[in-house]
Amino acid sequence: MEFWRDLKPIEKVFQPDALPEIYTADAATDDERYYVPFTETVSSRPLWISPSQNKWCDILMAKAAGLVNRHYHPHEVFAYTISGKWGYLEHDWIATKGDFIYETPGEAHTLVAYDHPDPMKVFFIVTGPLVWLDEKGEPDGYFDVHQYIALCKAHYEKVGLGAAAIDKLYR
Q1: What is the pTM of this model?
Q2: Residue 57 — pLDDT band, cuts 50, 70, 90?
Q3: Could you give the strand order of the β-sheet that contains 77-83, starting from the edge strand earlier in sequence?
């Protein structure tokens, strides 16, 4: 029995200066229009973006074996595996459905998606920029929230979802 059925909702839900929540139904959808290509093999579905904090949440997807450039995180990252199989070449673990990963600030790695019957879908909370690394592990560029926004807007415009859909994710 749902014992809470007779409770009345709180009337003052948001403080006067608070923005509303973001509710995204079917966040890990199979509709590929929502996934912004990062590389030839890996795409990202934006779910929440904070330009002022240089943070975003997304679902990273690879439908087959894939690769995200080698990179370094100066800030923490959280990951939860929805489906598929993925990991870092620099670690001995391989994540599958239900696995959680905390990436400590100061970590460098090469993210790969392994062949699996299900696509790799991972929910990430990314804090700060990704610093791209060359094959020797030396800095070779960066990717931050502003580049992410530009990439997302261009893709959403191209596939008919409209760039304004990205603006609705800002908090």
Answers
A1: 0.94
A2: very high
A3: 36-37, 43-50, 55-62, 120-127, 77-83, 100-103
